[in-house]
Specification:
Layout (H helix, E strand, L loop, with lengths): L1 H33 L26 H6 L28 H13 L8 E7 L4 H14 L4 E7 L1 H12 L7 E6 L8 H5 L12 H4 L5 E5 L3 E3 L3 H5 L11 E5 L9 H4 L10 E9 H6 L1 E2 L8 E2 H12 L7 H11 L4 E3 L18 H6 L3 E3 L11 H11 L5 H5 L2 H9 L5 H4 L2 H15 L7
Parallel strand pairs: 1-2, 1-4, 2-3, 6-10
Antiparallel strand pairs: 4-7, 5-11, 6-7, 8-9
Helix pairs in contact: 1-3, 16-18
C-alpha cells in the first residue's frame, strides 16, 4: 500500500513540476508576443526589481547574453528569461525563476490611468467664473482631469491662453467645443432659460466616447477633491444613470412644491448645477414618459418634452430633467446637499445638516452671489480661490486671511455659520499640501 502511495505522490510531484514549466514557457511566449512579434523583446519589463542580483532593466535577446560572458549566477539573472523565443533555455538558467519573473511582469504591467471627466458650458460673461471653477478642481484633485469645455466661439482663444499657461501642472487635458444644438430647433434650445444652459442635455449625444461625466455650472467651487464625488459612481445601483442633489431640504421654502406647473422629482425637485452621469447607461436606457406609451431614448425624448412643457417651465433644462426623473425615479441617485451647497441652504437659516456636520464639499454660487454683496460669505470664498496661485505656500496661506474675511460676514445668516465654509476646505488643504511632495 505504501508503495502505491509513494508512486501517487511521485506522479503528483512530476505533474506539478511539468505544469509549472508549461506555465513558465507560456508566460514567456505571451510576453514576447506582446513585445511585437518577431521583433526585439521588451527588456525594460524587469525594472520592477531594483537590485540584489535581479537588476533593473537590461538589454534583451543576444545582447543580454553578451553582457555577462562567463557569469556563474546566470540562474539568478531574470533578464535571461528572454534568451530564446523557441521555448528553449540554456541549461544553467532556472526555469522556475523565469516562471515567477514572467508572472510578476505580466501582472504588474502599468494600467491605464483613470481620468475624471469634467464638463462645463460657458457663455457670455462667464469666462472668469469658469476659470476659477477649473482652478478649484485642479488644486485638490488627485486623479488627472479631462476638461470638456463648451463655449461660445469668442471665448475659445481666452480659454486656450489661460489653460495653456497651466500646462506645467501636467495634471489635466482639455478639449474646447462650440455650442451646438439640433439644427432644426437650435434657436429654441439656445434661448431656453440662460444662454447655452440647455447644452448640458445633449452631452451624452455629443461626447459619445465618454462613459461617465461630471457636469457642473460655471458658478461651482470645489472645496474637496473632484475624485470624491466621482467615486459616487460606484454607489449607483443597476438602474441609476445620474446623480443630483435636492433643490431644497426645507419644503416651506421650496420652489417646485409651491410653484411648479409640471411634474418634478421627489418632494422638492432636484438641482442640476452639479450632475454626475453614467452616460453609457443614459444612451442605452428607454425612458417612461407622459407623452406616449412607448418608452423613448435620451435623444428622442428631449424635443417632445420641450414642445409639451415649454409654456410651463421656468428653469429650462433643469425642469426638463425633473420631469424625466419624475417618471423614472429609479434612475436617479440623490446625493446630500453638501455636494451642491447654495444660498438657499443658509439664506433664511441653516437647513443643510450634512454641511453643518462635515462642512461644504461643493459650493454653488447661483443667483450671482459671487459678484454682489448679498451673500458676502460666498463672495469671500470665490475671491480667495480666484486670486490663489498654484504654489503650495500660496494655497496653504489662503486660510487665515479667508477666515478673517468670513468673520466680517456674521451679520448675514450665511455668515453666522461661516465655519462650515472652511471646515472641509481646511481639511482638503491639509490632506493635499501638508504632506511631502513624494507622498502626494
Amino acid at each position: 500500500m505504501r508503495r502505491y502511495l509513494r508512486l501517487v505522490v511521485l506522479c503528483l510531484a512530476c505533474g506539478f513540476c511539468s505544469l509549472l514549466y508549461a506555465f513558465s514557457q507560456l508566460a514567456v511566449s505571451l510576453e514576447e508576443g506582446a513585445g511585437g512579434g518577431g521583433g526585439k523583446p521588451q527588456a525594460a519589463a524587469a525594472s520592477w526589481l531594483g537590485g540584489g542580483g535581479r537588476g533593473a532593466a537590461r538589454g534583451a535577446g543576444s545582447a543580454g547574453q553578451a553582457a555577462h560572458p562567463g557569469r556563474s549566477d546566470r540562474c539568478k539573472d531574470f533578464s535571461l528569461c528572454y534568451w530564446n523565443p523557441y521555448w528553449m533555455l540554456p541549461s544553467d538558467v532556472c526555469g522556475m525563476n523565469c516562471f515567477w519573473e514572467a508572472a510578476f511582469r505580466y501582472s504588474l504591467k502599468p494600467q491605464p490611468v483613470e481620468r475624471v471627466h469634467l464638463a462645463v458650458v460657458a457663455c457670455g460673461e462667464r469666462l472668469e467664473e469658469t476659470v476659477t471653477m477649473l482652478k478649484s478642481a485642479l488644486i485638490f484633485s488627485i486623479k488627472p482631469l479631462q476638461f470638456h469645455i463648451f463655449a461660445e466661439d469668442q471665448l475659445h482663444d481666452s480659454f486656450k491662453v489661460i489653460l495653456d499657461s497651466w500646462s506645467f501642472l501636467q495634471t489635466f487635458n482639455y478639449s474646447l467645443y462650440p455650442i451646438t444644438f439640433p439644427s432644426e430647433n437650435a434657436a429654441e434650445w439656445k434661448k431656453l432659460f440662460k444662454p447655452c444652459a440647455s447644452q448640458r442635455l445633449f452631452l451624452p449625444l455629443i461626447l459619445k466616447e465618454v462613459d461617465s461625466l461630471l457636469y457642473v455650472d460655471t458658478d461651482i467651487l470645489f472645496l474637496r477633491p473632484v475624485d470624491d464625488i466621482w467615486s459616487l459612481l460606484k454607489q449607483f445601483n443597476s438602474t441609476q444613470i445620474a446623480a443630483m442633489a435636492p433643490e431644497h431640504e426645507e419644503p416651506r421654502i421650496g420652489w417646485y412644491n409651491r410653484f411648479a406647473r409640471h411634474p418634478y422629482y421627489g418632494r422638492t425637485g432636484v438641482n442640476s448645477g452639479v450632475m454626475l452621469m453614467n452616460m453609457t447607461r443614459m444612451r442605452r436606457k428607454y425612458f417612461k414618459n407622459d407623452m406616449t406609451t412607448v418608452r423613448l431614448r435620451w435623444g428622442d425624448i428631449l424635443m417632445p418634452l420641450l414642445k409639451k412643457y415649454k409654456l410651463n417651465i421656468t428653469w429650462g433644462d433643469q425642469d426638463l430633467l425633473n420631469i424625466i426623473f419624475f417618471h423614472n425615479p429609479e434612475s436617479l441617485f440623490v446625493f446630500p446637499c453638501q455636494w451642491n451647497y447654495r444660498p438657499d441652504h443658509c439664506i433664511y437659516g441653516s437647513n443643510c445638516q450634512e454641511a453643518e456636520e462635515e462642512g461644504i464639499f461643493i459650493l454653488h454660487g447661483n443667483r450671482g452671489v459671487y459678484h454682489d454683496d448679498k451673500q458676502p460669505a460666498f463672495r469671500a470664498i470665490y475671491e480667495a480661490l480666484r486670486n490663489c496661485s498654484f504654489e503650495d505656500d500660496n494655497i496653504h496661506s489662503l486660510l487665515k486671511p479667508l477666515e478673517l474675511e468670513l468673520q466680517k460676514t456674521v451679520h448675514t445668516y450665511c455668515g453666522k455659520i461661516y465655519k462650515i465654509f472652511i471646515k472641509q476646505l481646511t481639511k482638503s488643504i491639509q490632506d493635499r499640501y501638508d504632506r511631502p511632495p513624494k507622498e502626494r
